[in-house]
Amino acid sequence: MSHNEIEHDASHGSVKTYLIGFLLSVILTAIPFYVVISGDFSKVTTLWSIVILAIVQIWVHLKYFLHLNFITESGRLNSFSFLFSAMIIIMVVGLSVWIIYASNAMMMY
């Protein structure tokens, strides 16, 4: 077995890491559902808990399912290419919404 094959196998998760990621995802989904369904919290607290837990869940998915890390050289490259792609997508969507909103505002005058 060559070094590349060992590194390739190590970059993919084991059953244990997939189960950890799955359980964390279920927990991070159940908590916001409980917060919303119970109605015991204010709107601001509910909104912030949903946003924070969504960000944590994105991190869990990136770490446990997409195996993005900054430890190995290939992991660093994969992480940077993912972040660059996400930035481009956010810019395209954000700027499109801005243009549509501005066009709508100009048509109302």
Shape: flat
The proportion of strand residues reads: under 5%
SSE string: HHHH
Number of strands: 0
Q: What structural class results from the helix and strand content? A: mainly alpha
Radius of gyration over alpha carbons?
Answer: 20 Å
Oligomeric grouping of the chains: single chain
Helix content: over 70%
First-last Cα distance: 70 Å
Low-confidence stretches: none
Mean pLDDT: 88
Structure description:
The chain is mainly alpha-helical and 109 residues long. The protein has helices at 3-11, 15-38, 43-65, 73-107. Helix 2 (15-38) packs antiparallel against helix 3 (43-65).
Key structural traits:
single chain, 109 residues, mainly alpha, 4 helices, flat
Write the layout of secondary structure elements.
Blueprint: H1 3-11, H2 15-38, H3 43-65, H4 73-107
Outline of the structure:
This protein is an all-alpha fold and 109 residues long.
